[in-house]
């Protein structure tokens, strides 16, 4: 369903000048609403689990003319003000698999933000908000790990299989907050909702970083 938080995220994305694709594995109501929002391309998919939806997003991006970057946002997140404009200016070094805009960690580096901290891709487990360079998308789609994938959920576990020696970067402060229900987290084991302790709020202007 398209609740207040989803609507807030879509409103923030609406002013983005680039292509905006929304993959829908829910009901017709969501597709109808998104079809009426100018600039969005709603794509209907059968619900086969979070992993297949994630891989479908990569497939859609990979065939777009002039594709260079994909910023993927799950539907249960909210963004800081002008987050996408800021994200569009961030360079991804060749030795990084991607940049994440969400984390449950706290940046302890004694520097003035913003900060990009690297960590092994094999340990990374969050798909809430990520910017992929085109090369990473193609590597994932062409990987043996994806060919052998048979799990309905947990798509973030593919990074350990495809990029065991590569790093990812996490941006601090986080510009995206997870607001979905804890019950939606596969394997969460009642640990509660995973939220970012460094998200500065929806009213924070990312362009002031």
Spell out the key features of this protein.
209 residues; alpha/beta; five-stranded mixed sheet; 7 helices; 26% helix
Low-confidence stretches: 182-191
- Average pLDDT confidence is 82
Broad structural category: alpha/beta
Helix content: 25-40%
Work out the helix count.
7
Q: Tell me, what's the shape?
A: globular
* Beta-strand content estimate: 15-25%
Radius of gyration: 16 Å
Major beta sheet, strand line-up: 3-7-5-8-6
For the sheet with most strands, the description reads: 5 strands, mixed
Helix-strand topology string: HEHEHEEHEEEHHHEE
Number of strands: 9
| CA distance, first residue to last residue | 33 Å
Walkthrough of the structure:
It is built from seven helices and nine strands. 26% of the residues lie in helices and 21% in strands. It starts with a helix and ends in a 31-residue tail after the last strand. Strand 1 (20-24), helix 2 and strand 2 form a beta-alpha-beta unit. The longest helix has 13 residues, at 50-62. The chain is of the alpha/beta class and 209 residues long.
């Amino acid at each position: 369903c398209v609740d207040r938080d989803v609507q807030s995220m879509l409103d923030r994305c609406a002013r983005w000048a680039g292509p905006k694709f929304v993959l829908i594995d829910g009901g017709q109501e969501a597709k109808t609403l998104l079809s009426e929002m100018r600039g969005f391309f709603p794509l209907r998919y059968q619900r086969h689990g979070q992993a297949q939806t994630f891989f479908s997003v990569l497939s859609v991006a990979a065939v777009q003319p002039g594709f260079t970057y994909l910023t993927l946002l799950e539907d249960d997140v909210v963004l800081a003000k002008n987050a996408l404009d800021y994200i569009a200016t961030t360079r991804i070094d060749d030795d990084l698999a991607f940049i994440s805009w969400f984390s449950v960690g706290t940046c302890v580096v004694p520097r003035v933000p913003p900060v990009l901290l690297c960590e092994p891709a094999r340990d990374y487990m969050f798909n809430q908000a990520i910017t992929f360079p085109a090369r990473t998308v193609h590597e994932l789609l062409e990987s043996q790990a994806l060919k052998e994938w048979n799990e309905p959920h947990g798509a973030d576990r593919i990074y350990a299989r495809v990029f065991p020696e590569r790093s990812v970067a996490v941006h601090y402060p986080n510009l995206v907050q997870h607001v979905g229900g804890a019950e939606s987290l596969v394997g969460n084991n009642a640990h509660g909702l995973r939220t970012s302790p460094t998200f500065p709020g929806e009213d924070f202007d990312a362009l002031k970083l």
